[in-house]
């Protein structure tokens, strides 16, 4: 997911030009790993791990932050200072008219569930997942810790198996892992950002003509109000552009100062040369709202080509490649109910990105 953040470049006359207008655009990115030890048998659906984690976390987070008199975040008199409202139901800050198309403001976090196919964890087995926080979401890190400790003790997944939160690790500089919390001392330590949007934008680049993207989880995109069944490059990259822009604005007060329309036109020049995607029909059940939500979308691999070249980060000399490829908000790029224009070309090959809720999860390579 980090890959979508990494590119502030545009295709121009068989070359790529970095957008100087993005020099002031920046927000912090924290990569955290939660390590849990199973107390009971813990079962998580193989194709729905991210949604199980996100849904269970949301319910616990709300119960910890909201009182019984709070019916909805919009009606609550404490909305402006409520951690739950800030994370799950944020309100547009003053001066957001430019992003009025964002009826559903993107959440400043992404769950990265285990990529393994294993679904059942027996007592004493370890279960780990990652959490990415963007911008000011890190201000609420202590709430995330308390919520997951409580969630582990109450249980989650099929049968609500209980766990013990053993540790929370943060990756510093996308290299070394450092403890933020351990069950031994029950203390939450400050966590420095793993990287920033500015660092990713400034990463070394190389020219490429082809890029392949693999959609790991069902991805739902809309173009001109219509559901996309077979993705073109501009469908994906425009949505990535808008998601990055919205996260920067709503959670760091930073906005991409570029010609979105011109960027879109250049992205449309990229052609799909191999479409290996298929449509999957899925849904999830919300215990909080007692509703079923569609999770349908396309999965598979698509390969794209441009007559000229665009640049992808070489990842050499920058933070280590294995770390870089795990930290981009592309994983939460698409959510039901969102609309609006979608811009920004990845500097780096899209290596890996999966989604916690219904959204794009991609991995790929470029050359």
Description:
The chain has 8 helices and 18 strands. With 367 residues, it is an alpha+beta fold. It has 2 domains: 197 residues, Alpha-Beta Plaits; 167 residues, no CATH class. Strands 3, 5, 7, 8, 9 and 10 form a 6-stranded antiparallel beta sheet that branches. Strands 14-17-11-18 form a 4-stranded antiparallel beta sheet, with no helix packed on it. A two-stranded antiparallel ribbon has the order 1-2. Helix 2 crosses helix 4 and helix 6 packs antiparallel against helix 7.
TL;DR?
This protein is an alpha+beta fold.
Tell me the β content: 25-35%
Write the H/E string, N to C. HEEEEHHEEEHEEEHEEEHHEEEEHE
Q: What is the overall number of helices?
A: 8
- What CATH calls the topology of the largest domain is Alpha-Beta Plaits
Q: Which residues sit in consecutive blocks of at least 5 with pLDDT less than 50?
A: 1-21, 312-367
Summarize this structure as a short list of keywords or feature phrases.
single chain, 367 residues, alpha+beta, Alpha-Beta Plaits, 2 domains, six-stranded antiparallel sheet, 8 helices, 18 strands, globular
């Amino acid at each position: 997911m980090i890959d979508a953040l990494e590119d502030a470049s545009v295709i121009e006359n068989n070359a790529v030009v970095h957008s100087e207008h993005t020099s002031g655009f920046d927000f912090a990115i924290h990569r955290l790993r939660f390590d849990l030890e199973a107390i009971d048998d813990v079962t998580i659906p193989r194709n729905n791990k991210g949604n199980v984690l996100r849904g269970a976390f949301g319910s616990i987070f709300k119960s910890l932050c909201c009182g019984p008199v709070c019916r909805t975040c919009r009606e609550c008199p404490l909305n402006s200072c409520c951690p739950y409202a800030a994370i799950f139901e944020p309100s547009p800050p003053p001066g957001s008219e430019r992003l009025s198309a964002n009826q559903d403001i993107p959440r400043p976090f992404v769950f990265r569930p285990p990529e393994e196919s294993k679904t059942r964890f027996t007592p004493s087995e370890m279960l780990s997942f990652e959490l990415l926080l963007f911008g000011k979401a890190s201000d609420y890190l202590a709430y995330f810790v308390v919520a997951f400790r409580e969630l582990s003790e109450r249980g989650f997944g099929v049968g609500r198996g209980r766990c013990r939160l053993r540790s929370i690790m943060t990756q510093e500089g996308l290299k070394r892992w450092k403890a933020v919390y351990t069950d031994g001392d029950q203390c939450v330590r400050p966590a420095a950002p793993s990287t920033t949007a500015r660092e990713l934008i400034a990463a070394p680049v190389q020219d490429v003509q082809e890029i392949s993207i693999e959609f790991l989880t069902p991805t739902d995109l809309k173009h001109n109000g219509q559901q996309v069944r077979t993705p073109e490059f501009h469908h994906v990259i425009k949505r990535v552009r808008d998601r990055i822009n919205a996260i920067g604005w709503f959670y760091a007060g930073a906005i991409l100062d570029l010609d979105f329309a011109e960027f879109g036109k250049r992205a449309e020049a990229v052609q799909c040369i191999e479409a290996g995607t298929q449509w999957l029909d899925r849904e999830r059940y919300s215990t909080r709202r007692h509703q079923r939500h569609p999770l349908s979308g396309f999965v598979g691999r698509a390969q794209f080509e441009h007559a000229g070249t665009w640049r992808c980060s070489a990842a050499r000399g920058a933070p280590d490649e294995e770390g870089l490829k795990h930290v981009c908000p592309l994983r939460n790029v698409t959510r039901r109910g969102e609309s609006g224009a979608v811009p920004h070309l990845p500097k780096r090959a899209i290596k890996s990105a999966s989604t916690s809720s219904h959204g794009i999860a991609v991995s790929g390579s470029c050359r």
